[in-house]
Amino acid sequence: MLRDKFREFSRDTSSIGQERVDGVNGLADALIAAGHSENATVAEWKDGLNEAWADLLELIDTRSQMLAASYELHRFYHDARETLAQVQHKQKQLPDEVGRDLNTAEAMHRMHTAYEHDIQALSAQVRQVQEDAARLEKAYAGEKAADIRRHEQAVSEAWAELRGSSQGRRRLLLDTVDKFRFLRAVRDLLLWMDGVRLQIEGQERPR
């Protein structure tokens, strides 16, 4: 990766360069201390060398910061696209069927509870995308900032839709389970009443 290669280059260049600059500075100081006839020229060259070295270090630092910022932006785009794809995939996994009877409705409700735990794990990724976008938007302006906002909004809107769909399905499943429980209670009561009626009708009539 370019950023890692430049980091290694920067570290090596700074270390080797500082050693060489220190060596030349030491030589210049020795010449000046010895009262060399070209003291003024030596001092001037020494100052020029140190200024050039400081400029080079600043250039290396600026380049490092640019690469780090570029890497962070590309990582944000990658994370946002990946999170959006995962959220959309989970949205497609939501079934429409609610069950034909109490047993299947209860089974689907249990499956949906597991599904909700599953999508809850995505909330951390969504939150990270939102936090990264808020931080990066401050560092960029114009089209880049707008693009960062678009990526974050796509993730946030898809996440809100998924949560809404999931909550809606949970309510529907609970209503379906309640309906089948009610129908079973009604059926059991009617069967009991039929049994009582049969018992009554089966008894001898009074003479």
UniProtKB/TrEMBL annotation:
Q: Which domain of life is it from?
A: Eukaryota
CDD domains named among the record's database cross-references: SPEC (cd00176)
Segments traversing the membrane: none
The coiled-coil segments of this chain are 112-146
Among the Pfam families in the record, one is Spectrin
Q: Does the keyword Cytoplasm apply?
A: no
State the name under which the record lists this protein: SPTN2 protein
Q: Name one GO molecular function term.
A: actin binding
Q: Which UniProt keywords apply?
A: Actin-binding, Coiled coil, Repeat
Tell me yes or no: is Hydrolase among this UniProt entry's keywords. no
SUPFAM superfamilies, sorted: Spectrin repeat
